[in-house]
Sequence to fold (648 residues):
Amino acid sequence: MLTLAQIAQALGGRISGSQVVAPGPGHSPADSSLTVKPSSTAEDGFVVYSHAGDEFGECRDYVRAKLGLPPWQPKRTSNGHADLRLVDTMNDAAISETSDMVTAPAPDQDLLPKHLVATYPYVSGDGEVLYEVLRYDPKSFRQRRPIPDGYAYTLGDVQPVLYRLPELLAFPDATIFVVEGEKDTDRLHAIGLTATTISGSTTWTPAVAEPLRGRHVFVLADNDKSGIAKAEKAAEVLHAIAASVRLVLLPGLPPRGDVSDYLDAGNTKEQLQDACLRAPLFYPKATTPPPVMEPLPFVDISSWRVGDGVPPREWGVLDLFPRRNVALLSGEGAVGKTLLLLQLGVAHAIGRDWLGTLPEPGPFLYFGAEDDTDEIHRRLADILNHYGADFPDVDDKLHLLTFAGEDAVLGHADRAGLVKPTPLFERLMTAATAIKPVLIGIDTSADVFAGNENDRSQVRQFVAMLRKMTIQANAYAIVNSHPSLTGINTGSGLSGSTGWHNSVRARAYLTTVKTDKDDEPDPTLRRLEFKKNNYGPVARSIDLRWKNGVYVPVGGIGSVDKMVKEQTADSLFMALLNRFNHQGRNVSEKAASKNYSPTAFAKEAEAKKYGLRKPDFDAAMRRLFAASQIAVEPYGPPCRGTTRLVTR
Fold:
């Protein structure tokens, strides 16, 4: 019978009680995962057990080789079948399995050999398998790396890498979810998220994390002390490499729970993303957020000049609503704010008039929280019918969002009174930046602003948040709002503090038309009063009448036909001037000259087509001079003093 001393010497182990503790196959000399016990009843003369989950046959053959015993061969029974002996490593009992019967004593479940349930490959950026993590049941793990004649159960000189590395490299702009364990990584991959982890025997280092440089990273912690510590370690390393790091402990996790438990509880991919976005930015405990030390971004005016090069102001609606700004449209309930806003949006989309004005053509993005989809459908049908158009005419120009009966909050105030954008706002701003609408309609302020409207600071922060969106999208925004009783009685149309009035660049108030005795003589009449206009005329009002589902002006701010004719004359003047100059037919700005430009242009076929005469081109030339779109330049010998008209 083998002695403990013989076994210990052969395996390079130590005697512990009635057994020997030694390194397992493929493990380092300092390892002590293998337990071997002499046995007079065991076929091999010993029983063996691996605390690292190494396969029983591999351990048995390893010990036999170290002891100088021949390779193990199964015995043959009298009926010719192999007699496979599986040894319960601690009790010297044997399970004798033949084709006829299996008998065994009740084993100690904690000591049974473990079963492989999953293999997780760690591969290089080129797809070469560097090593694998093996998962066993009962839960345990080990690593192995491929070698020419099989596997070695140590990493050796192989450098650790991130799990699913090729996928991380294939999507350089993806946000990364760092989790604890390969199972959770695969679970997030299955729902369309880019995730990674490291094996349990490796640690987070700058070299391992390097593929995540410049990325936005969410580090998801398991809900236990160890899981949080591991997540913090990962976040500390990533903080110096990633563009941003957020350390996330998901809400509602059970003790020791992880992201798979979170999803198993019925939470969706979108809820997971929202929970991650709400997590604060991570900063290591030993540091604080770095102060902003960059110099202030002063505007460089060295190239500015009075006159030439002054950028023209861009309007959504000329002299009423400037682009890259926020406006307010207030009115009592049921007065028609939503209809008026939708009319303006459709006018942008199909390039038509709105209450006697000509809005800039372009897409319309509507974010509503009051009317459902069917109601919006009905209103738009009336508006399009008014313009003689149909839905196919605006299919790619109207972008509608309806959140009636749902959470539509875009900004909320925290305990410190700071207004924070919600994930929904971030999604809206992303959409607006992509669509590039002329107008963003938000209906209404009470549904989207979860702050204190009596707090001027909070209102101003919220308007600034909306303005950031308009600047990025090169749009303007109109926010519908309801006035307070005081706002109704005073005629200001405001609600809460004066923060709304002071923060927006333009403000209009839609009311019913009443007599001095507060009577409403005609329920179809409305008055749109412009209460503020930072860049245009104020104290302007338009009387409207509801007719066939839309509002039409009773007394407008200008003739649409006249404006259309003027725009046509201006455009044709520029086109003809370019053509004449290209042909060498110089024209003059002087009325007494034979080649006076309005006289020459009025004779062209295009002028007759649009019904434009010499006075129309006279007026167009004055407007174009005022707008610095045309100029006079000399030509020919200087002694002659001849000049000609050119475009700028």
Notes: The first helix runs from residue 4 to 11. DSSP finds 19 helices and 32 strands in the chain.
